[in-house]
Amino acid sequence: MERASAMGGGGLSADLAASSEQSRGVLFALIAYGAWGVNPIYFKLVAYATPMEVLVHRVIWSLALLLVIVALRRSWQPLAAILRSPRRLLVLLVTGVLVAGNWLVFIWALQNSRMVEASLGYYINPLVTVLLGIAFLGERLRGALLVAFVLATAGVVNEVIAFGGLPWISLALAITFGIYGLLRKSIGVDSVLGLTVETALLAPFAVAYAWSLADAGTLVYGNVDLPRSLGLMAAGVVTTIPLVAFGAATLRLPLWALGFLQYFAPSITLLLALFVYDEPFAPSRAITFAFIWSALAIFSTAELVRAKRQLA
Q: What is the pLDDT of residues 187-210, one digit of tens each?
């Protein structure tokens, strides 16, 4: 009896520990997605620099912060192992270019009052990720997922008809981030270490571009007052900390939970666009979002049902 009681107590302790870890995972996920959702405020504030210069500062100062994080984690050996793998380096160079392109489009969209389109891109992203899985991983599109894709396609078609062209900002953000995720998954590296290598590979180009701006006399950093120069340096913290929190969340939460929480970020961005920055939201765009949200509701429900079946 005492032994059984002890075993029962051990099971209870394990359950409590698992529950605590999941609670921490939710907190980390909310920090990550919440920060990504309010990031537009920062990029609006640093609009005194061009999108390309903001991106350059994001690369340079992110690398400095990431190296500090690697040092604190004492992760030099696993980092060196990545650097010794030509295949991983090549993939991380490609993913670095993809994420840099994603950020450049995102920053440009925010500085040009296209925040609604940017939020649409991140709503579409989960559906693009599934489509890439079908195209490259042999996954199948059937049932609820097929209905979700039909609805999402209808939303994009509506956007084309209403505005006379493809929603290129939304599609560029969704496709680049979708391919980024697919490639990063293929090499299975730690999120922080992978980002460190990606950023290090981009850093020489970022420094060269900053040098060319300085030589031409058009570099904003250092030629404005101290608060605005520090504002550009903050790009490293603003873009790196959410990713670190996201990495911590992925270790503690199942993918279906992260899948639900990921809509937190574009929802905040959309609310900022409408109620803080007064971006227009035409009835035709409301129809587009209605299609996309319906598709996401079906997609998320199907994923939740699938996850419960796997756990059963």
A: 888 888 999 999 999 999 999 999
Asked if residue 14 has pLDDT above 60, the reply is no
Residue (of 229, 249, 265) closest to 61 by Cα position: 229
- Look-up of token digits 């796997």: 310
Residue 148's identity, in one-letter code, is A
Instruction: Answer for the pair 194, 184: CB distance below 8 angstroms, yes or no.
Output: yes
Whole-angstrom distance, CA of residue 184 vs CA of residue 174: 15
Q: Which residues neighbour 151 within 8 Å (Cβ) at sequence distance 6 or greater?
A: 291, 292, 294, 295, 298
H-type alpha helices, 168-311: 168-187, 191-216, 226-233, 235-252, 255-261, 264-275, 283-311
CA–CA gap between residue 101 and residue 202 (Å, rounded): 12
Whole-angstrom Cα distance, residue 258 to residue 260? 5
- Single-letter residue type at 6: A
Among 166, 177, 197, 168, which residue's Cα sits nearest to residue 82? Answer: 197
pTM for the predicted model, two decimal places: 0.85
Residues 235, 237, 243: CA angle, nearest 5 degrees: 110
Cβ proximity of 151 and 291 under 8 Å: yes
Helical pair 283-311 and 115-137, crossing angle rounded to 10 deg: 40
Given pLDDT bands bounded at 50, 70 and 90, which one contains residue 11?
Answer: low
Backbone angles phi, psi at 253, to 5 degrees: -125, 145
| Amino acid at the residue 13 | S
Average pLDDT taken over every residue of the chain: 86
